[in-house]
Amino acid sequence: QKEVEQDPGPLSVPEGAIVSLNCTYSNSAFQYFMWYRQYSRKGPELLMYTYSSGNKEDGRFTAQVDKSSKYISLFIRDSQPSDSATYLCAMQDNAGKSTFGDGTTLTVKP
Amino acid sequence: DGGITQSPKYLFRKEGQNVTLSCEQNLNHDAMYWYRQDPGQGLRLIYYSQIVNDFQKGDIAEGYSVSREKKESFPLTVTSAQKNPTAFYLCASRHPQETLAEAFFGQGTRLTVV
Which chain B positions have a beta carbon within 8 Å of A88's beta carbon? Predict the structure, then answer.
């Protein structure tokens, strides 16, 4: 069983939709939770990170962590075609080692 | 501009050949990483280095080798022992001393065995 499981997708939504991207994990040593965005043929870029249960908001993006359920989500409001990318969740332990999900490819259609 | 540079962007290799992928950073980061990404899959850690002249195997090190002679450089050699080398390779760096430090990624090298 993988330490990090990510909803596989792909997802295709109309412009303006609310998008929910989800990951579960099994390793209780994970303390930090990150979302990376990767455009086609490019390296990933850090989008958001958090370390506590609850919600963290940044513009149209909200990262949600539920440590008791070992579940994290990324919500995108008012999705735009420019949001079309692969989104990777990543979890980091106190030693600094990161484990990535397999990614969810999102397409936002105009 | 600070960042990580990977070269070449595309690389073709004949079966049985060794090839070396370049990764250079000017961010003054101590830690550097090599990941492999296959279609529809996440990043899998090949090797990482926390400091110059030291490196450790990641989850899929077989068939790969690295060196860390300089802080700025962390080249990856894909050897003929790697049975399925066709993939997208990503190099990253970060400050290991920070509890949560953003990993900065290069733009990747796409390796194809012909």
Answer: 42-43
Strands (DSSP E) found in B8-100: 10-13, 19-25, 31-37, 43-51, 54-57, 64-66, 76-78, 87-94
CA-based nearest residue in chain A for residue B97: A96
Position A100 scores a pLDDT of: 92
**Considering only alpha carbons, which residue of chain B is nearest residue A35?**
B102
- Residue A1 pLDDT > 80, yes or no? no
* Tens place of pLDDT per residue across chain B (114 aa): 669 999 999 999 888 899 999 999 999 999 999 999 998 788 999 999 989 999 999 999 999 999 999 999 999 999 988 889 999 999 999 876 665 667 889 999 999 988
What residues of A are in contact with residue B29 (Cβ under 8 Å)? Answer: none
Locate B97 and state its tokens: 């001393």
Give me the residue from B94, B100, B107 closest to A42, CB to CB.
B107
Percent of chain A with pLDDT over 90: 74
Length of chain B: 114
CB pairs under 8 A between A and B: 48
How far, in Å, are A46, A72, B1, B39, B105 from residue B5 at the CA level? Answer: 17, 31, 11, 22, 9
Report CB contact under 8 Å: A46, B102: yes
What is d(CA A33, CA A85) in angstroms, rounded to the nearest whole number? Answer: 19
CB pair distance less than 8 Å for A100 and B42: yes
